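Q: Please design a sequence for this.
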């Protein structure tokens, strides 16, 4: 008798273990820092905080949200790095509720009076607008959004204290300069703004120098075109 042997071939599949990927950026404008025990006031080191009164949306073009990207955007809207790269005073910190706790400012940028190379030296002398940048990028809120503490400051003869109504005025002047189409270094930006309420308190309680604020935050979405 002819015996026929049935051979069953069982395929063996190999499963590759992929290396852990980098944490993806959360596709939202930002996460309210209060959600994870953060704050919309930075730590100015004097018992009060400066309001984080402008947010550059995490839905902005990715290149805008990098260190070099925010500096180039700043130059497009009338701001630049500090005079001769010299920073006087300690950096401020902020807890953006992203799981990293308080983090020092990424960079501080000043009004350049039309000269991105040396104009900030004039701002240091006579005063003007300036802002600090904090990035929301920790594991609890990896949005990439940039939170800005914007204010109008007095000249060096007044120790660079904040001007009267300087937080509201600084924010409004910055937003007015930033909104619309601007260009610098071969890059063109289109920026739209939206006012957000409820993130900051109204009044002077807890605010650095006891200067009252209106509680408004402006959200900027910046696209490279």
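A: Design:
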């Amino acid at each position: 008798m002819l015996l026929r042997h049935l051979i069953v071939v069982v395929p063996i599949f190999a499963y590759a273990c992929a290396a852990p990927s980098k944490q993806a950026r959360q596709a939202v404008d930002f996460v309210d820092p209060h959600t994870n025990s953060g704050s919309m006031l930075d730590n100015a080191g004097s018992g009060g905080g400066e309001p984080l009164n402008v947010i550059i949306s995490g839905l902005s073009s990715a290149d805008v949200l990098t260190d070099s990207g925010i500096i180039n955007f700043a130059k497009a809207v009338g701001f630049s790095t500090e005079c001769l790269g010299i920073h006087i005073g300690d950096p401020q910190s902020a807890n953006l509720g992203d799981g990293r706790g308080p983090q020092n400012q990424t960079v501080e940028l000043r009004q350049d009076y039309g000269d991105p190379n040396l104009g900030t030296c004039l701002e240091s002398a006579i005063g003007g607008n300036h802002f600090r940048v904090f990035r929301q990028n920790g594991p609890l809120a990896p949005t990439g959004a940039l939170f800005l503490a914007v204010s109008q400051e007095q000249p060096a003869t007044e120790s660079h204290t904040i001007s009267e109504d300087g937080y509201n005025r600084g924010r409004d002047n910055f937003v007015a300069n930033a909104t619309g189409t601007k260009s610098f270094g071969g890059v063109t930006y289109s920026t739209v703004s939206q006012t957000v309420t409820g993130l900051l308190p109204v009044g002077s309680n807890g605010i650095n120098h006891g200067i009252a604020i209106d509680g408004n935050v402006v959200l900027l979405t910046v696209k490279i075109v």
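Q: Thanks. Anything notable?
A: Residues 1-21 have pLDDT under 50 and may be disordered. DSSP finds three helices and ten strands in the chain.
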